[in-house]
Design a protein that fits this description.
Elements lengths: L2 H25 L18 H9 L5 H13 L1 H7 L3
Helix pairs in contact: 1-3
Amino acid sequence: METDEIAQEKQSRYEAAFAALNMLAETWPACFKHEDEIPVPLAFGTYDRVRAELGEMVDEEVLRRAFEIYCRRPAYRAALRQP
């Protein structure tokens, strides 16, 4: 694979993950917040529950990447440190 193809593939994977994040925020606004909102920590097992609920609607790799992006946001990490 050429470098441009790899970069395009990586970009398309991130675009799919961000689209999944927007869908999660629209579907479950109490759990998932848009980037400009203050996030709340997710409960243990949220990924498994969301995956079971969505079934085949979202690819597992895309959903996993969406959760990684969401949970690595600085605002999310700061929310974890709140009492």
